[in-house]
Amino acid sequence: MHVFDLIENKKVRFKVGPITKRELKKLEHFEFEWVKEFGFEVFKLELTRTKEVLGLLSIDRSFEELRTEIRLLEISKPNIGKLKRYDRIAGILIAFACKESFISGFYGFVSLIPKTSLIDHYINKYGFKQFGRHLAVELEISENLMNKYLLDEK
Q: pLDDT, tens digit, for every residue of 10-66?
């Protein structure tokens, strides 16, 4: 599994796992108040070697609706826009949410309510379908995202 370092033009290994409140309070380069998300599951994407946190994800598992909701997803400021250093961060976090959906028995059903300006981006880049204000992926599209972002290429 890798993010891509655009400056050094190479693959860099990462891991995704839970983050603690203590770690969140020390983070720089993030705008949202992530401590408020601690009623839900919060995960970090960090570089394996340096432990630099590149992205954060908050999910809520709805067992009644058999879906995983992406409540909040944020990429660190240095990795947004044309001058970003690392690429693939959002895709990895979305694919991780898909994986968690399968683990919960939801068949990859993942939804989110995006900012209006990002609707087309989620649809075109990640394959989300629009359902009113919600966007969602399931089974085949979720599997494709996991294969693209979470598996090592041969």
A: 999 999 999 998 998 889 899 999 999 989 999 999 999 999 999 999 999 999 999
Bridge partner list, 61: 68
Handedness of CA 36, 63, 138, 140 (dihedral sign): positive
Cα of first residue to Cα of last residue in the chain, in angstroms, is: 11
Task: Determine how β-strand 10-18 pairs with β-strand 53-62.
Answer: unpaired
Q: What percent of the chain has pLDDT over 90?
A: 86
Sort 152 into a burial class: Cβ within 10 Å, 0-12 / 13-18 / 19+: exposed
Pairing mode, strands 129-131 and 10-18: unpaired
